[in-house]
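Slide 14.
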Amino acid sequence: MATTSLEPTTGSGVSVREFTEEEQYYVASQWQLMWRKFRRHRLGYASGILLLLGYFFAITYDFWIPYDFTDRHDKLSSPPTRIHVIDASGTWQMPFIYGTQSIVDPQSFKRTFVEDPERIHPIGLFTQSAPYKFWGLFEWDRHFFGVEGATIHLFGTDELGRDVFSRTLSAARISLSIGLVGVILSFVLGVIIGGISGYFGGTVDLLIQRFIEFVISVPTIPLWMSLSAAVPITWSPLQTYFAITIVLSVVGWAGLARVVRGKILELRENDYVMAARVAGAGNMRVLFDHLVPGFMSYLIVHLTLQVPSMILAETTLSFLRLGIRAPAVSWGTLMQDAQNVSVIAVFPWLMIPGLFVIIAVMLFNFLGDGLRDAADPYR
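Slide 15: predicted structure.
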């Protein structure tokens, strides 16, 4: 049976004690046990890795997109570009695209794009194109892929000729980050207000709980819409971003605060809490250093399950034109172009940003399920 050496060791390098793999299970910390159980949850573990990759691409989106998300091209409402590896003569080549020609039907005025097999444009990697400021720190002109002498649109273009792939990846930066920032803000408010309510009790608890009940009783969507409509239209995209984040956090903390209060009421009379008080620890130290860590695993699970709710809320507000405003883009603003059934029937690729919303929400839910199972001591 495999063994693992634990410190301290003697001067000759021989370990004082060695634990078998079975014994390690009994000496592992709570976080180590959670990590081991989480890694065995394949769906949750894979979802966590995919989400990390998604955030990486969102943070570094300037490098991965071939064009700026505001650039307009001649191909108005063109379908996704077809990538080929076999030319017209049947010869295998590196990935390439054909040149296209736009044809407008004189009777229906419908625009179609026809490929020209005589015009072959190879797809290059690390191509030089329009410069951009990477992370807003330094200027660079290299993009992950591109085509010389033509344009490539993996997800097609919208009615103004803007590349949907570039806009979708750019929008991920706002849609994914606003979920995290909004959840963290509501998490801090929920833990602080709920912790104070449960720890001190009495009149403080009574007033806080009545206020929480009032907040919960207000319909969420109308409240978000009214607060979003109050954001001045003259504000910059950055100011609007933070305003929408605060709006989404206004209600999100109430449910968590009630759960935290219940947990604090359950734990505040335990022996280790009494020992901390006798040792001279202040109220805030007892609350945040001794009580809150006792149910931190639940709080982490709550965070992962709340992020998709924030993403959907931002998407809803932006879809209703009450969220992120141009020139900034989010997945919700991109879905404004696909409001009509007639538009979807003719230009179905405009629904691609909606698929990213669905995938992101599902990945967060799978991650939350995995963390919940890992944090459950009875599983």
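Speaker note: The chain has two domains: 65-162, 169-375.
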